[in-house]
Amino acid sequence: MEISHDLTRLDFRATSDLLRASYWGGQRTDAINRRAFENSLCAIALIDGRQVGFARASGDRAVFARISDVIVWPEHRGKGIGKALVASLLAHPDLSSVSTWMLNTSDAHELYARYGFRPTTDGNEMRLDRIAAG
Predict the structure, then answer these.
(1) What are the residues whose beta carbons fall under 8 Å from the beta carbon of 106, sequence distance 6 or more?
(2) How far apart are the first and last CA of the chain?
(3) Kind and range of the H or E element at 109?
(4) d(CA 49, CA 113)
(5) Most buried of the four, 23, 44, 58, 70, by CB within 10 Å?
(6) What string of DSSP letters covers 77-90?
(7) Which alpha helices (H) appear in 9-80, and where do they start and end?
(8) Cα separation of 45 and 79, whole Å?
């Protein structure tokens, strides 16, 4: 398996379709996904040159980053690909000064806990959810 951060290697169609079928990405359009990917540092998992996973980090690339859209193609799940994607973002040189990492998950707490992520319960974290304009 190879992890690339070269957006030209992204299979946009497959990635957007899989994200739009996910519980968190169902409201997105291709245009929204394209803009999100272009404004993020993306990690693309490949086996024999074919994409099998995706994740991205957004933020200022200096002090704050948010990991989003960690997804592995169904037939390749359970092989450590999600772990490799997250590890590649956390170790990326462009994000080496980032001190605050965030993410949101409903089902992968154990995956992220191995990297030190923990639930935010200190009462300081706040969130605003808006309906995005397409």
Answers:
(1) 23, 24
(2) 35
(3) helix 109-113
(4) 30
(5) 44
(6) TTSSHHHHHHHHHH
(7) 12-20, 30-38
(8) 12
